[in-house]
Write a structure and sequence with these properties.
Elements (H helix, E strand, L loop, with lengths): L2 E3 L12 E5 L6 E8 L2 E8 L2 E5 L1 E3 L1 E2 L9 H6 L5 E3 L1 H6 L3 H6 L2 H6 L5 E3 L3 H7 L1 E5 L4 E4 L6 E4 L1 H11 L3 E3 L11 H19 L3 H5 L7 E6 L5 H12 L5 E4 L8 H11 L9 E3 L5 H9 L4 E3 L2 H6 L3 E4 L2 E4 L19 H5 L2 H9 L4 H26 L3 H14 L10
Parallel strand pairs: 6-17, 7-8, 8-9, 9-13, 13-14, 14-15, 15-16, 16-17
Antiparallel strand pairs: 1-2, 2-3, 3-4, 4-5, 10-11, 11-12, 18-19
Helix pairs in contact: 6-7, 7-9, 9-10, 11-15, 11-16, 14-15, 15-16
Length: 409
């Protein structure tokens, strides 16, 4: 059965209704409104609201996007946020979150929430981990407690947290893994996806009406042939969306772009396409051009805390002495509250005296910029001019960058 909906935000450049087709999980559906080359503009409907794509998800690792309130997230136009299962599993624990009403009530965010499976953090942060086909045993980076993460545990934790979209558990091999290691990781990821999908969310929560979509993850490092083979395996499962994992983990940006060009256009057209943990505005534009819908990354918020702001003219480094007497806003093309109110000189002062307001304001600006970037990308796709628009944006970003030509770092 097909329904239709208007886009949720007039600035998205969408006026006509978008036909929606149901995904595997009740309450979730997807419609493709426009396609320009490989790039596409879609509408993802969830029980907690519609999401117009391309979309960037601010990262709220510990059930908070560092320094911002939910109201401020809404003010920059955030449609969905990402929370981290590994960290919330360790502190405060899923039972605490559940008893306090679930993630939405816990953190005061009423929109959709996506949680990752925790696997990436286990592989990158945990000490003394051992991995086999059942799962991974590791010691907490917080207190050394021995813990076991399996596909079933990952899904149970995410069910108790109460997110709207849950990621299945996967094995993320290092970028330099050999072919045999990649094949093992891909086979294990597929097996774990099947086990994840077999978990009954409603039985865990005791709520027969609870809807939680589940996205599968494609691995294969920078081997396009392996990526495509694994994409076919994951896409054949009853997942609501498909994600590319294991990119931007040390490979040069041109390598990641090569993989995106070879794989992203072949991702299922009838489901959301998600590139995990990426990245810079350059990365987003490249991936959007290849048909990716969803993104998350700590870069705009983490870099904000060191005084780096993204503008349409590239990055501004507020710690540079040139900004001490600078009366200009961060970006004269930006309508965010920060650029409408304060000068670079004032923001530079805040970082020099280590006032907490500095990182907060630049975080607000950076997320506003990422939002406007994806909104403008959507408008360009709908208008059939994405390629030329993207080329001009990239040129502007490079021409004014204060930190040097930026790729994916």
């Amino acid at each position: 059965m097909t329904e239709s909906a208007s886009a949720p935000d007039s600035e998205q450049g969408v006026g006509a209704a978008v036909p929606l087709s149901p995904l595997h999980t009740n309450g979730f559906s997807l419609g493709v409104q426009a396609v320009d080359g490989n790039a596409r503009a879609t509408l993802l409907r969830t029980p907690r609201g519609d999401i117009a794509t391309p979309v960037f998800m601010p990262v709220g690792t510990q059930a908070t996007v560092k320094g911002l309130t939910p109201g401020e997230l809404r003010s920059v136009g955030a449609q969905i946020v990402l929370c981290n299962t590994y960290h919330l599993w360790l502190r405060p624990g899923p039972d605490v979150v559940s008893q306090l009403g679930g993630l939405h009530r816990f953190m005061g965010w009423t929109g959709p929430i996506l949680t990752d499976s925790g696997g990436f953090q286990v592989f990158s942060l945990a000490k003394l981990r051992t991995l086999d086909d059942d799962g991974v045993v590791f010691r907490s980076h917080v207190d050394g407690t021995r813990m076991t993460l399996t596909p079933e545990v990952a899904m149970e934790v995410q069910a108790r947290l109460g997110s709207d979209i849950a990621m299945v558990l996967d094995e993320c091999p290092p970028a330099d893994a050999n072919g045999a290691a990649l094949d093992r990781a891909m086979a294990r990821t597929t097996a774990w996806a099947k086990r994840s999908l077999a978990v009954d969310v409603n039985q865990i929560t005791g709520d027969p009406t609870r809807a939680q979509a589940r996205f599968g993850i494609v691995q294969g490092a920078c081997d396009v042939k392996r990526r495509l083979a694994h994409l076919n395996e994951v896409s054949a499962l009853d997942v609501d969306g498909v994600a590319l994992g294991g990119l931007s983990v040390g490979e040069p940006p041109p390598e990641m772009y090569r993989v995106l060009q070879g794989v992203a256009p072949h991702m299922p057209r009838d489901r959301p396409r998600y590139l995990m943990g990426v990245g810079t505005p350059y990365d987003l534009l490249e991936a959007i051009g290849q048909g990716v819908d969803m993104f998350d990354c700590v870069l705009p918020t983490r870099n904000a805390r060191t005084g780096q702001a993204w503008t349409w003219q590239g990055r501004v480094n507020l710690r540079q002495s040139r900004h001490r007497l600078d009366p200009l806003p961060l970006d004269e093309q930006c309508a965010c509250p920060v650029c409408s109110t304060w000068s670079r000189g004032y923001l530079s002062h805040l970082f020099r005296v280590k006032e907490m307001l500095g990182p907060r304001l630049v975080t607000l600006h950076n997320l506003w910029f990422y939002r406007r970037l994806t909104v403008a990308a959507r408008e360009a796709i709908v208008g059939g001019r994405f390629s030329e628009w993207s080329r001009q944006v990239v040129q502007g970003l490079r021409d004014g960058d204060e930190i040097g030509l930026a790729g994916s770092s």
